[in-house]
Amino acid sequence: MTVAGTMKLGLYFGNDDVRVEEKPIPAIGPKEVLIRVATCGICGSDTMQWYREPAIQRMGGINTGHEIAGEIVEVGELVSQFQAGDRVIVVHHFPCLECPSCQDGNETACEAMREKHIEPGGFSQYIRVLEQCVARGLYRLPDSMTYEQGSFVEPLACVVRGMRKASPIAARTVLIIGSGLAGLLHIKLARFLGAQRIYAVDTNTRRLEAASRAGADEAIAATEKLPAADRVFVCTGSPKAAESALDCVHRGGHIVFFATDGPDQKLPINLTRFWTMQPTLNFSYGAAPRDMQEAIELLRAGQVCVDELVTHRFGINQIAEAFRIAANPRDSSLKVIIEPNRAEQLSRP
């Protein structure tokens, strides 16, 4: 059955200018599928206006939603591996798995990660999933998982990747700078992986309380002297946090820069000191297929629990307010979820 009519979607022109528009439901081709979006989380990168500005300049309003879970409602005539009614997690970009970066295990440095394979994006009631994404970007949502848990698969997969770059975590001391959503997922995963002691840092008292609940052994205000650790994860874009990490790593330890904020951000490094200390500095961006599979299993098995991290849920008509909260987090806000079809009636001709 062909799904026709119009749908609502959110278009981002800036953190203070997110508009709800109505457009036709995308028509799909013979090798494509149409998905009714159940949930889509707002990622920190969605609110990085400097990061999104080039696309805004090219296209006007953009739909950046990519933490997507939903139900397939229509499949193209040549699609055999999925059918209407399947519950899925959608990844909008993925590596080629063939280039030198991919063969080196550095899949998210692949040039193919710049390509988008859905239309328009997760902040809409329906999305068209293009042919390559049907083959490589759809993951079945286990029956035991909710759609909301499904929207955490991609962000947790990013954390899985970052922690792999600093493995092993077991029996190591871990310092996580930044206790927003990404930091809390790092804490939860580090606890599951057997970290010896976990330190969490933030400027926000409420977030430090959340870090303790998530499994941190010690929650420390960013204004205090920070401890040294074997593994240091920078989960905030603050330049000061990035500099602090350099002073907090043990000899031979690992620093992973998971977050950044602002174009051309630079970091002064004491090469002479590090020449003898020999720490490993790494950067982590995005998630590859192996990270996605691992994240699904962590959530399915209850090894990482995320339900308590959702603090706000909005329908598509409230997406502007949702972005205001996500871009300027209140004391109690952590994960903001958009439910595009919640309490919404699809408009049909």
CATH superfamily of the largest domain: Medium-chain alcohol dehydrogenases, catalytic domain
In CATH's first tier, which class of the largest domain applies? Alpha Beta
Q: What profile does the largest beta sheet have?
A: 8 strands, mixed
Note the gap between the termini.
16 Å
The CATH architecture of the largest domain would be Alpha-Beta Complex
Q: Which shape, going by the Cα principal axes?
A: globular
Helical run tally: 11
CATH topology heading of the largest domain:
Quinone Oxidoreductase, Chain A, domain 1
Can you walk through the features of this model?
By secondary structure, this protein is α/β, with parallel strands linked by helices. It has two domains: 6-157 and 287-339, Quinone Oxidoreductase, Chain A, domain 1, CATH 3.90.180; 166-283, NAD(P)-binding Rossmann-like Domain (Rossmann fold), CATH 3.40.50. Helices cover 27% and strands 27% of the residues. The chain is built from eleven helices and 16 strands. The chain has helices at 49-59, 100-103, 131-136, 147-150, 153-164, 181-192, 205-214, 239-246, 271-277, 289-300, 319-327; strands spanning 6-14, 17-24, 33-41, 67-75, 87-90, 118-119, 126-129, 138-140, 173-177, 197-202, 218-221, 229-234, 249-257, 280-283, 310-315, 335-339. Strands 3, 4, 5, 6, 7, 8, 15 and 16 form an eight-stranded mixed β-sheet that branches. Strands 11-10-9-12-13-14 form a six-stranded parallel β-sheet, with helices on both faces. A hairpin with a 2-residue loop joins strand 1 and strand 2. Helix 5 packs across helix 6 (181-192). It is globular. Mean pLDDT is 94; it is low at 345-349.
